[in-house]
Write a structure and sequence with these properties.
3 helices
Length: 125
């Protein structure tokens, strides 16, 4: 028997022991998770339809909304910036004894580079 197989069997045995322990003791573990955009969902949802070299600036503003900011880069091209804020909420409960709520936010910025009123490219930071 290889050491990897032995390690794998060991983890399986531990997992079964934990499941049996909680199952037989009457403990119930519940996990609920939800993810949603608090801001900027239009930009992130429209991102898949942008095509560099063909999508116009007017289309970007119409479908993604007015940018949060814009600037001119070193090449002289306009860069539109859109902020998005996504929240991940997770609740873990053990029987009726205790409950833990965890919330995590992720702030991202989508940059769309415009050259001659056409999308040259985009990236997310």
């Amino acid at each position: 028997m290889t050491s990897i197989t032995a390690i794998r069997r060991g983890w399986i045995a531990i997992a079964l022991a934990v499941v049996c322990t909680f199952g037989l003791s009457g403990c119930i573990l519940a996990v609920q998770s939800d993810s949603h955009y608090k801001r900027g969902h239009e930009a992130m949802e429209s991102l898949a339809t942008i095509r560099a070299g063909t999508t116009s600036r007017a289309w970007v503003v119409e479908h993604m909304g007015v940018p949060d900011s814009s600037y001119v880069n070193a090449d002289g091209n306009e860069v539109l910036s859109y902020l998005s804020l996504r929240e991940q909420e997770t609740e873990v409960a053990l029987l009726f004894l205790f409950s833990i709520d965890v919330s995590e936010e992720e702030l991202r910025t989508l940059h769309v580079e415009i050259e001659d009123d056409i999308v040259k490219g985009y990236w997310i930071e």
